[in-house]
Design brief:
Layout (H helix, E strand, L loop, with lengths): L11 H12 L2 H16 L9 H15 L7 H9 L6 H15 L5 H8 L3 H18 L2
Length: about 140
């Protein structure tokens, strides 16, 4: 049985992504974050799981590096063991991921949360991460 929940680290794809990053070398973490986020933020195609969950986990990890609460032991462990700088490129990519996921067009992540009647709850849970990312750029 798979993991599923409202938080950004409460599903299999996000947990797998964090686990893969934890196994990566220190120099590969930033590249992994950026690749996952670009796969969603730069896509004009229909967004599908598990790519959306991995991109969301990456975006939230960037927000956590900027001081947001990870709310997950696995995310906190990754942040402690794999230092990366949440530079402007990562921060902007993370913001673009959150904006793209909130857009209902061509978006399985949005469709699934809408069908579950939980889109508003999930977007509310993501709001502090978005605020942290936006504030870091001002």
């Amino acid at each position: 049985m798979g993991a599923w929940g409202h938080g950004p680290f409460e599903n299999d794809a996000a947990l797998d992504f964090v686990g893969d990053l934890a196994d990566a070398g220190p120099g590969e973490v930033r590249a992994g974050l950026l690749a996952a986020m670009r796969a969603v933020a730069d896509s004009s195609d229909y967004l599908e799981d598990p790519e959306t969950d991995a991109a969301l986990a990456a975006a939230v990890l960037v927000a956590c590096r900027l001081g947001a609460d990870p709310g997950s032991a696995s995310a906190a462990d990754l942040l402690a063991s794999c230092p990366f700088e949440a530079d402007g490129e990562l921060r902007l990519a993370a913001l673009r991921v959150l904006d793209r996921l909130a857009d209902p067009r061509d978006n399985e992540w949005h469709d699934l949360w809408t069908d579950a009647g939980s889109l508003d709850k999930v977007l509310e849970l993501l709001a502090p991460y978005r605020e942290r990312l936006a504030a870091a750029g001002s």
